[in-house]
Design brief:
The chain contains eleven helices and no strands. By secondary structure, it is mostly helical. Helix 1 runs antiparallel to helix 2 and helix 8 packs parallel to helix 10.
Length: 228
């Protein structure tokens, strides 16, 4: 909150919007998902005449993810379309330094997660299959674009692909991507990645009926136990 007040006192509305989106991510991570869209909306409203295309795209992409978490699939898709349209207008030379992290890979990863979450809200059928395909394409593109030194981001994306494969009942694909994620976690310590791994463990429980599925959950459990 101190950073937000400082940005307000300095008249930097773009920085204020950036701080609010960081707070929204934290609320979502802590399980207060209902609060996250309000913070994103506040960021969009408070800096509505000052937002750069990259900041607009980032905020609306987050909106797509949070709406998907809340099961508002149509709203999530509409937000995803707006995020892509805003990103088309981005000129990196005109963007603030604090937006340097938000590139095509970051957008693809965020929207890919939105589609993966949406898929899990839907019954099996063509709509779910479409969201799974979009998720796999977007997260896969994000992973391909990440440089090797972005190990935490790459771990997130392997984990995202694992969850996408699981949403498609592809346990072998989920196990392969989980292996990549766990290998990276041998060199990267991240509470957020570990928490997402715990979510994958829970998502795999309903399908843990065969040996490969049980083995997948056992490997995740062993890592979580070692992580403390």
């Amino acid at each position: 909150m101190a950073a937000l007040h400082a940005a307000a006192e300095g008249g930097d509305r773009r920085l204020g919007a950036h701080i609010l989106q960081c707070m929204a991510r934290q609320m979502s991570h802590l399980g207060h998902v209902d609060d996250a869209p309000d913070l994103v909306a506040l960021a969009q409203y408070g800096a509505r005449r000052h937002l750069s295309p990259a900041t607009t795209s980032m905020l609306v992409a987050l909106e797509a993810r949070f709406q998907a978490i809340l099961g508002r699939i149509d709203d999530s898709e509409a937000a995803a379309d707006r995020a892509l349209a805003a990103f088309d207008r981005v000129n990196p030379a005109d963007e603030d330094p604090h937006m340097a992290f938000f590139d095509a890979a970051e957008l693809q990863a965020t929207l890919g997660m939105a589609h993966q979450i949406a898929a899990r809200h839907l019954d099996k059928g063509t709509a779910r299959t479409r969201h799974v395909r979009l998720s796999a394409d977007l997260v896969g593109a994000a992973l391909a674009a990440r440089p090797d030194h972005r190990r935490r981001s790459r771990a997130f994306e392997h984990l995202g692909l694992a969850r996408t494969h699981l949403a498609a009942d592809d346990v072998d694909g989920a196990a392969e991507e989980t292996t990549h994620c766990l290998q990276m976690l041998g060199t990267v310590r991240s509470r957020r990645v570990t928490d997402r791994l715990g979510e994958l463990y829970a998502e795999a429980e309903p399908v843990a009926e065969t040996a490969p599925e049980r083995e997948l959950r056992e490997r995740i459990h062993n890592h979580l136990a070692a992580a403390g």
